[in-house]
Amino acid sequence: PACPGCPVTPSLPSPGRRCERVMAASKPVEAPGGGGGGGAGLSRWQVALVLGAPILLGAGALYLWGRRAARRGGKGASERKTPEGRASPGPCGGGGQPDGPGHEETSPLDRAQAAKNKGNKYFKAGKYEQAIQCYTEAISLCPPEKNLDLSTFYQNRAAAYEQLQKWTEVAQDCTKAVELNPKYVKALFRRAKAHEKLDNKKECLEDVTAVCILEAFQNQQSMLLADKVLKLLGKEKAKEKYKNREPLMPSPQFIKSYFSSFTDDIISQPLLKGEKSDEDKDKEGEASEVKENSGYLRAKQYMEEENYDKIISESTKEIEAKGKYMAEALLLRATFYLLIGNANAAKPDLDQVISMEDANVKLRANALIKRGSMYMQQQQPVLSTQDFNMAADIDPQNADVYHHRGQLKILLDQIEEAVEDFDECIRLRPDSALAQAQKCFALYRQAYTGNNPLPVQVAMKGFEDVIKKFPKCAEGYALYAQALTDQQQFGKADEMYDKCIDLEPDNATTYVHKGLLQLQWKQDLDKGLELISKAIEIDNKCDFAYETMGTIEVQRGNLDKAIEMFNKAINLAKSEMEMAHLYSLCDAAYAQTEVAKKYGLKPPTL
């Protein structure tokens, strides 16, 4: 799961206020030391936000209707290895006649069937070369107008080639079978597997998409292949695109929300009295002169004026001059590199601050938090945990360390440790509404995933206590709304989102969540889309809104519109991992358009 509003770590609920996607997830990311694959965690696109329901696999995040079929019971991971048709003791060529007098000579189709049956017998005995000979004879004997029989013979020969790992021949024979029988699931899936082996990912995805639709998303094996190919395609495209992307500064609201998640961050504090003059900024919008000739202090002035594009260059001047605020400038520059999605540029600056033993300990701790968050974004939880632990060691009275480490622990499903960290944050800073709200969320998540109604009730009461104690904390209402949605208390959840909007009318992600709620609660597509459109109007750089709208458009059958929305989100992605996820969604939508053109197959729409 990932946070749409978090520049440093889409894998954490914060830094950057609440994590809009983590709250919808029911399982953690993989813990340190875990292996890859389908074990402890779910990839981002394995969590369906639309209608608030989890879906098994990535392809399902776009094929929402597949979850309805899944409720009726799936086929599991059944294999498709055997050829079709029963084996019989007839000769391979089938050229003879049935035993006994009085029988008429067999037809060409009968002889072809006899050859196929003999091929099946060889196949089951593991004699694949002989099986291929028999299937080839069946193909040559079969009348050309017998499309279904011919398609079976080609598919059976492909199955034998598959056992010999002759992938080009497998793909060729499956293509013949599909040309004769366009909705032939076995042939489509076998060709998809051959394309996977031949590294033809696009073709593999189209075939497995057709299979998923034809099987109503009830076969785990085809869903797993779709998920695997989507991930590979997404990673490949994101790696190339992200390397050449133009840096993009997030919206002012996003940046302010990000910094508001820190209470001990020196670089986000206002300029001290005496550091700047009382002059107004000039007509060209340049910052007023500061008392010292310091690039860092000018950068801070620009920050107060929300003139964020000039912060990196001014910080660089301080660094190159080796000025008195060099450590602060390094941290400020690294932070804005992270905000524009340039982790490679941010890391050397963070490393340097962390190694400066004579620097203010709060600067070093803050750099460790940000580097740890960056590692988590890059799915390196061991390194992330080490940085957070080091931050706690060097600055044990820093509430930010425990706040952000608590969120890391939630993602790693270490709920008890997360609660301990939130408690320590609250002890150090009793007025931390964010920490109290997120502690409630941790306890709720623990209770909800454990299916114990009593702790759930206790956690829900905890949310009530938090919003009563901190009525101005939008975070408390947002997290409570997520929990209420889980409990299908939709009306009250809607009220909580309204409270959020009253407190933070420029927070685009709240409108997205309220829009999603309308879909789940009232199946009101128009209202849902209206709210998500409002989110884009408020913040046209809100990738979460474009992504969500794209997902809804897929479910409405508007695939071209969906692809347009996903591409907008891709251009706004704040990390390579985020971009890979979005490419996966876009590729899945595109595959559906190709399948619709080729085979006339479309999943039912909302």
Layout of secondary structure:
Blueprint: H1 58-62, H2 66-71, H3 108-124, H4 128-141, H5 147-163, H6 167-180, H7 185-197, H8 201-214, H9 220-243, H10 252-259, H11 295-304, H12 311-320, H13 326-339, H14 343-355, H15 361-377, H16 381-394, H17 399-411, H18 415-428, H19 433-449, H20 453-469, H21 474-486, H22 490-503, H23 508-522, H24 525-538, H25 543-556, H26 559-572, H27 576-599
Helix pairs in contact: 3-4, 3-5, 4-5, 5-6, 5-7, 6-7, 7-8, 8-9, 8-27, 9-27, 11-12, 12-13, 13-14, 13-15, 14-15, 15-16, 15-17, 16-17, 17-18, 17-19, 18-19, 19-20, 19-21, 20-21, 21-22, 22-23, 23-24, 24-25, 25-26, 25-27, 26-27
TPR repeats: 112-145, 365-398, 399-432, 474-507, 543-576
Keywords: Acetylation, Isopeptide bond, Membrane, Methylation, Mitochondrion, Mitochondrion outer membrane, Phosphoprotein, Repeat, TPR repeat, Transmembrane, Transmembrane helix, Ubl conjugation
Family: Belongs to the Tom70 family.
Protein architecture, described:
TPR repeats lie at residues 112-145, 365-398, 399-432, 474-507, 543-576. It comes from Bucorvus abyssinicus. This is Mitochondrial import receptor subunit TOM70. Among the domains are: 108-244, Serine Threonine Protein Phosphatase 5, Tetratricopeptide repeat; 251-267 and 292-395, Alpha Horseshoe (Serine Threonine Protein Phosphatase 5, Tetratricopeptide repeat), CATH 1.25.40. It has helices at residues 58-62, 66-71, 108-124, 128-141, 147-163, 167-180, 185-197, 201-214, 220-243, 252-259, 295-304, 311-320, 326-339, 343-355, 361-377, 381-394, 399-411, 415-428, 433-449, 453-469, 474-486, 490-503, 508-522, 525-538, 543-556, 559-572, 576-599. The longest helix is centred in the middle third of the chain and has 24 residues, at 220-243. It has 606 residues and is mainly α. Residues 1-78, 86-90, 95-103 and 277-289 have low confidence and may be disordered. The chain is elongated. Helices cover 63% and strands 0% of the residues.
